[in-house]
Amino acid sequence: MTEIKRAQAALRLGRNIRAARVKAGYSREKLSELSGLSTNYIGIIERGMKNITIINCQRLACALSTSIDKLLEGVFHSTNEARNTTCPSGCILFNKTGECESKEH
């Protein structure tokens, strides 16, 4: 994936996260409280200024009562791009209480 495509993907993901936050009726402060991520970090992600880790994406998805799939809708345009973003075997995810869960595929 080229640098431009990475930047576009980060921007689209950030917009999706912001839309989900607004739809849920949460401020950045409330989302910060629920996800354990700083308000500054959430703002940076929403503006597409930084890439997000799968763990932090899962934390936001859980806090927003949605799935990572929903947050990634429209982020990647081709099947090959989407295929390159799948979670590797044994990745660590966070449940709603902030506890780690190992997900074996």
UniProtKB/TrEMBL annotation:
Residues 17-71 form the HTH cro/C1-type domain. Pfam families: HTH_3 (PF01381). Transmembrane segments: none annotated. InterPro entries: Cro/C1-type_HTH, Lambda_DNA-bd_dom_sf. GO terms for molecular function: DNA binding. This is Transcriptional regulator, XRE family.
